[in-house]
């Protein structure tokens, strides 16, 4: 575009340019100066514009840049840094008496922008700015309150102002997590779960989901979540302390593997293909052990064949998992930041795709200092059998002590108050009963010799086949998971694939047999996949 045409267009629209200057400066003399500078800047460089249709976009971009330069120049020639900063905030925030309704609406938008940028500042810069501009405290007073030097206060004021001026002209859009926080849930494998209720606060899950694929600064998280920094910072610190978030430079990234719905769908397809061709053959091998298993010393050997096959399959799956671990270990449980040892990982779909309500393997003494016992039990809460068996993991210690006491048939009159509260739930769930003043297990209980004979001899071929199948399954899923996970947590994928998918093989076998009619669910409450072992010398 030639300068003559540009000059005519600018002259015809000078009131709009002047209005822009007034809205941003609130001083008519300054506004006239700024409008003249904008016109001059446009005329000097408009010859570089190739497309005439882009003229007005170019004009307003130039106007914004010229405004920035104008404000910077004014600040530089002000009597002091403090006076210039206070003038900027006073001129920007305080309404002018001459404003009409439209101007007041524009003012409200500007105040909103300043508050928005203030909320996005880091904690120290935000606290310094609030004290200085809102509470009108001196740099010395702020220095004393925040325990930093006066020079540091001035530095943070300078940086805060620059950051706010930069952000003031941005059009910030809140991210998807501001209205759709996601359905993050935590999963645990180890000795003591201290993370059970940590993610009850939905914002923590939203942070973990947001920062999974790539690191994000606190400011980026604030915009993505639609949460102001004063509220976000404490949650970030809690996540760092729990070890589920880590700091990378000035940014944060999720420090655990998340099994996404897309990943689980693909993994399920691969595992179904792997298992489908072998499932029924394994079931025939399992059935062959039934006659000899009934001869062993355990309470429950008189159960019907259907229930005993549930038991044998569950024991084969549990011991297949142990066999796989010995042959291809997932590693030593690591100390976790909130306590206990083990592994944590997450889901972005609220555990909708999980095949378990929980797993309690080889559980002995619940806590140090509890009465001595020589027994242990296992409960596998497959979702497929939830209408028959659902052992709650809440109040774990009390329930564990009751289950162990029932295995040893201890008296029921010495229970603690908290144990008495849990006894009713276990009776209602079909796990325990009380007879002649003693606790009774309503699930199979083996002698130590009988359990060893079952697992080391009768079921050994099935256990090894199941274990090898578990190893194949976890190898397939480990490769898939590593291809989906960010590099920052890829080293965790091997252990998580082994923990997540190996025992899942047992659940998929059980579902296959139910679908084929080889196994049938009883109508009532029956602990189908629960058993106990009474070790030699256990009291009765």
Description:
With 540 residues, the protein is of the alpha+beta class. It has three domains: 3-168, no CATH class; 176-255, Arc Repressor Mutant, subunit A (Orthogonal Bundle); 261-534, no CATH class. The chain has 21 helices and 14 strands. The protein has helices at residues 3-12, 14-25, 28-45, 55-77, 81-93, 101-119, 123-134, 139-146, 150-168, 202-210, 218-225, 229-242, 261-276, 279-288, 290-293, 305-327, 396-407, 417-428, 448-458, 460-484, 493-516, and strands at residues 185-190, 216-217, 245-248, 251-254, 258-259, 298-299, 334-335, 341-347, 356-363, 375-382, 432-435, 438-441, 445-447, 530-534. A hairpin with a 5-residue loop joins strand 7 (334-335) and strand 8.
Short description, anyone?
With 540 residues, the protein is α+β, with helices and mostly antiparallel strands. Helices cover 56% and strands 11% of the residues.
């Amino acid at each position: 575009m030639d300068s003559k045409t540009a000059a005519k267009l600018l002259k015809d629209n000078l009131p709009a340019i002047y209005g822009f200057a007034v809205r941003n400066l609130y001083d008519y003399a300054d506004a006239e100066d700024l409008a003249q500078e904008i016109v001059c800047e446009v005329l000097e460089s408009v010859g570089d514009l190739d497309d005439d249709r882009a003229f007005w976009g170019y004009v307003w971009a130039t106007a914004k840049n010229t405004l920035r330069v104008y404000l910077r120049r004014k600040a530089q020639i002000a009597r002091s840094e403090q006076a210039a900063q206070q003038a900027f905030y006073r001129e920007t925030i305080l309404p002018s008496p001459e404003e009409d309704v439209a101007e007041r609406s524009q003012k409200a938008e500007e105040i909103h922008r300043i508050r928005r940028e203030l909320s996005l500042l880091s904690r120290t810069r935000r606290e310094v700015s609030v004290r200085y501009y809102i509470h009108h405290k001196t740099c010395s007073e702020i220095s004393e309150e925040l325990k930093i030097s006066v020079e540091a206060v001035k530095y943070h004021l300078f940086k805060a102002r620059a950051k706010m001026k930069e952000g003031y002209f941005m059009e910030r859009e809140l991210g998807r997590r501001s209205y759709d926080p996601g359905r993050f849930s935590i999963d645990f494998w180890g000795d003591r779960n201290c993370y059970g209720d940590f993610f009850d606060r939905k914002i923590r899950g939203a942070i973990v989901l947001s920062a999974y694929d790539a690191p994000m600064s606190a400011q980026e998280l604030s915009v993505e979540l639609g949460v102001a920094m004063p509220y976000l910072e404490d949650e970030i610190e809690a996540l760092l302390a729990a070890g589920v978030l880590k700091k990378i430079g000035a940014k944060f990234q999720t420090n655990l593997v998340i099994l996404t719905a897309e990943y689980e769908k693909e993994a399920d397809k691969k595992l179904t293909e792997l298992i489908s061709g072998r499932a029924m053959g394994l079931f025939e091998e399992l059935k062959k052990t039934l006659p000899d298993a009934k001869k062993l010393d355990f309470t429950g050997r008189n159960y019907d064949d259907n229930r005993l096959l549930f038991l044998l399959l569950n024991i084969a799956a549990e011991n297949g998992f142990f066999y796989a671990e010995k042959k291809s270990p997932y590693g030593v449980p690591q100390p976790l930041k909130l306590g206990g040892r083990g592994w944590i990982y997450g889901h972005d779909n609220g555990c909708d795709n999980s095949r378990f309500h929980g797993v309690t393997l080889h559980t002995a003494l619940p806590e140090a200092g509890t009465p001595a016992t020589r027994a242990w039990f296992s409960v596998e809460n497959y979702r497929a059998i939830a209408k028959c068996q659902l052992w709650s993991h809440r109040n774990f210690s009390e329930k564990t002590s009751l289950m162990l006491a029932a295995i040893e048939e201890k008296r029921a009159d010495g229970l603690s108050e908290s144990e008495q509260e849990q006894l009713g739930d276990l009776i209602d769930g079909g796990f325990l009963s009380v007879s002649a003043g003693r606790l009774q297990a309503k699930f199979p209980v083996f002698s130590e010799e009988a359990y060893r004979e079952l697992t080391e001899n009768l079921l050994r071929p099935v256990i090894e086949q199941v274990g090898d199948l578990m190893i194949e399954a976890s190898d397939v899923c480990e490769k898939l998971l590593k291809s989906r996970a960010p590099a920052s947590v890829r080293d965790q994928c091997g252990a998580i694939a082994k923990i997540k998918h190996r025992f899942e093989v047992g659940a998929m076998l059980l579902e296959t047999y139910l679908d084929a009619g080889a196994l049938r669910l009883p109508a009532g409450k029956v602990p189908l996949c629960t058993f106990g072992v009474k070790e030699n010398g256990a009291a009765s």
